[in-house]
Design goal:
With about 775 residues, this protein is of the alpha/beta class. The chain folds into four domains: about 5-100, Alpha-Beta Plaits (2-Layer Sandwich); about 105-340 and about 490-615, Peptidase S8/S53 domain (Rossmann fold); about 345-480, Glucose Oxidase, domain 1 (3-Layer(bba) Sandwich); about 660-765, Immunoglobulin-like (Sandwich). The protein is about 20% helix and about 25% strand. It contains 20 helices and 39 strands. The termini are close together.
Length: about 775
Amino acid sequence: MASTLPHLFFLLTLTLTLATATTQKKTYIFRVDYQAKPSVFPTHAHWYASAAFNGAGSGEPLDLLHVYDTVFHGFSASLSADRAAELLRHPAVLAVFEDRRRRLHTTRSPQFLGLRTQLGLWSLSDYGSDVVVGILDTGVWPERRSFSDRNLGPVPSRWRGGCDSGSGFPATLCNKKLVGARFFSKGHDAAAGTSGGVNGTVEFMSPRDADGHGTHTASTAAGSISFDASMDGYAAGVAKGVAPKARVAAYKVCWKNSGCLDSDILAGFDRAVADGVDVISVSIGGGDGVASPYYLDPIAVGAYGAVKRGVFVATSAGNDGPTPMSVTNLAPWLTTVGAGTIDRTFPAYVVLGDGRRLAGVSLYSGKLLNRSMLPIVYPGRSGGLSASLCMENSLDPKLVGGKIVICDRGSSPRVAKGQVVKEAGGAGMVLANSASNGEGLVGDAHVLPACAVGADEGDALKSYVASATNPVATINFKGTVLGVKPAPVVASFSARGPNGLSPEVLKPDLVAPGVNILAAWTGATGPTGLESDRRRTEFNILSGTSMACPHVSGAAALLKSAHPNWSPAMIRSAMMTTATVADNRGGHVTDESTGRPASPFDFGAGHLNLGKAMDPGLVYDLGDADYVNYLCALGYDAKTIQVITHAPEACPARKPAIPDLNYPSISVTFDSGAGNQTRTVMRTVTNVGTTADAVYRNRLEMAAANGVVVTVRPRKLAFSAAARKRSFAVTVSAVAATTAPAYAYLVWSDGAHEVRSPIVVSWIQPM
């Protein structure tokens, strides 16, 4: 990698130059050396718009969309490719990248995380009071009870944010709970080729949420207490965010049906940090399955500027699991969150004519089938692939009318398949997982009687339909069931490691509740999000790493309130080293897709456990210098590093080692197929316990040895008031040639605290 990085900017220039055959405009984001601004210009915006920056002879004016001046210095503009290539040659321009579209990673969970009223972290943090959580998402529906400011004190005096008024959203809708609401559409508008923005019949040119995703994530992180909450009777109870007294600032950077543009996301980061947020929650990620280098990833670059200023940033891991190396948001300054289940489910059963019951899940709340046995049909037997998937206009009403229809999962939204069945005259639907989905199930608020079943149950159902003379079935719905075991389980859709950019940094970092999560919902669309769905609900139940991410954001708000001097890395460390790897049966957390024990590639350090994170004992801290050394270790040159870090940085004469980044997890790589290899990595821990004079001793728990030997030196760490930091070395030896990953856990204990770190050993092909 080191040999190719010096050519980065040449390659960017070449890419742009090759595109000059067209004059079509696109949006580009320019990273500028802020120190190069001549003093004659009062602001960077004046400089960017001037002839001094553009060139006096330029025939195309620079139409600025966003000007960035907090977490990132530069601008975005709609330009032709040849004009972008011309600007790249400006001596102050460090980098340019084309705007890309990202996608969203779409009551009981706080208790499942170990939070208890008037006890522990909730009480000691005053429920996150006065911490501001910034939500970069689709906006907010402010009238929901989750954003009531009842019993909240004044807005913190340090808060510098405000509310943008717009379509259906007067600035007066903000209050002591919803302290900020802004929207960013210029990148979206440029990409759509419109002058007036998005279609006002399906969207709002304001912070108002037409999609629902942003309202859901915001209330998950920091929603106020709402009594008698439910989604049409499901998950009834008291709904509250993880940090119910924290303040919410909504930054609308994503738009219904059209996703999220990098230029708008970066503007959201820039504004949120300038406004004074303490935590940023980003349930957004790449949609192309390819991880971009950090210097070409505006989420990574924007988050770096935030973390550098002490702002904790949580991101979703993505929903492309259980495929290996599917995890996104890989930068080590991000906290990357996968999804797990909680101990609540919404069972439904497909009862067959031969008496068998096939277990599934559903959130259907309409008119029931009343246990009536109806004909059941699988259109995929004769209608081809599109019919098996119940794609639009694929079903023959003569075949499916009045019947329960089996639809295969994939290619279109789950709830949209039910709409297709309904429009074709079907009476109900069974949604069957494919082998790639396995047994992982999520509930949906279907528009007709329907439930989802796993791959095995789906195969059994199809076999029954194929073999029975007159196959019939019905669907029974059982409402809400609590106390489900085992839980947590790693959701099959949750994206998995290893890290595709830097396997020496384990991602995801941890998992949190992300399956069937109840939270507030928009008033602009029904619970399915389909335009044809005319139902309206105050709360909705959704699944995805999008739902897991705000649990960690809310947790960070609680920890920030309880420990205001902790850095973002210390907060992440507290969550990771206290995460649980055991389920509520006392066994190891399992992987939903296989039923086998989950590995650190599936769940990172484990499942979030806020009952212990308040007092972790020891933490692994990281600062700006550590991240710079990490980038140097990757082989980035000074100019490339400046694209990320904002300021010029010099790498040390001796190249740092990537595995020595002081991360709470340890990942070591060996050359594939070779034995007798050894790696030693260093770590430093800081004692944050109430007892300054503490002695920690280590133990190793080997989960999968596979010819690997791990040793730790020294065996104990002694802390005092004068020595709150101690370092240790972990040596990993591969004594045999193998390709199977090996896992272990390093635990430091003083008798009161258990500071747990996963150790992952993997083999890669040598370069």
